[in-house]
Specification:
The two termini are 17 Å apart. A 5-stranded antiparallel sheet has the order 4-5-3-6-7, covered by helices on one side. Strands 1-2 form a two-stranded antiparallel ribbon. The protein has 4 helices and 7 strands; from the N terminus they run E-E-E-H-H-H-E-E-H-E-E. Helix 2 runs antiparallel to helix 4. The chain is an alpha+beta fold.
């Protein structure tokens, strides 16, 4: 199966000129295929040199969710939590976390983000709140860590704002859904 990133990212950059790459499947990769780039030949941690990489449109989408008691879910859904608008505050926390990822994750490059979008989906049957974050930039390195960090911070903020009524909430399934741009091209997580 081959994959090609096509179209236009919401930041306005055309992805149609990205080359074709085989669809990535992390289950098919071995350590020999993908060496850990944050270690030098002596095994010491270092920040990857991205100076020679081409600047391209980059996009990453990450998701996760937080499960909770039905009463906690009702507080979030109705907007009557004691600390205020839980999802509104969580959205701002996620955006701030995306912008600060280089400060939080030691070997991440600081990135000039062009867009961060945070979406919440309420699932009364679970009960749970799902968070999906899309991060974009035009640069020399990807934004996967920014999307993952933002998603995590958004879910942690929901926990923080509701822990007084439900300390047993469970944050789960935080994962990368998609990345586009750069030398490795377009990758999407397997669904199933």
């Amino acid at each position: 199966m081959r994959s090609r990133a096509t179209g236009t990212l919401s930041c306005g950059y055309d992805t149609g000129s990205l080359p074709e790459f085989p669809a990535a499947n992390c289950n098919e990769m071995s350590q020999d295929d993908q060496p850990l780039t944050h270690f030098d030949a002596a095994g010491q941690a270092h920040m990857v040199d991205v100076g020679a990489k081409a600047e391209t449109a980059r996009l990453a989408r990450a998701a996760g969710r937080i499960r909770m008691q039905p009463a906690t879910f009702a507080l979030i859904q109705s907007g009557t939590a004691k600390k205020g608008d839980v999802l509104g505050v969580a959205r701002i926390a996620a955006i701030q976390a995306a912008k600060r990822t280089g400060d939080l994750i030691p070997l991440c490059h600081p990135i000039a983000l062009t867009r961060v979008a945070v979406e919440f989906e309420l699932d009364a049957a679970a009960p749970a709140v799902a968070c999906t974050v899309t991060a974009e930039t035009f640069g020399r390195t990807g934004v996967e860590m920014e999307a993952l960090t933002a998603c995590t911070a958004g879910l942690l903020t929901i926990y923080d704002m509701c822990k007084a009524v439900d300390r047993g909430m469970v944050i789960e399934e935080i994962r990368l859904l998609e990345k586009a741009g750069g030398k490795s091209g377009h990758w999407m997580a397997e669904t199933g």
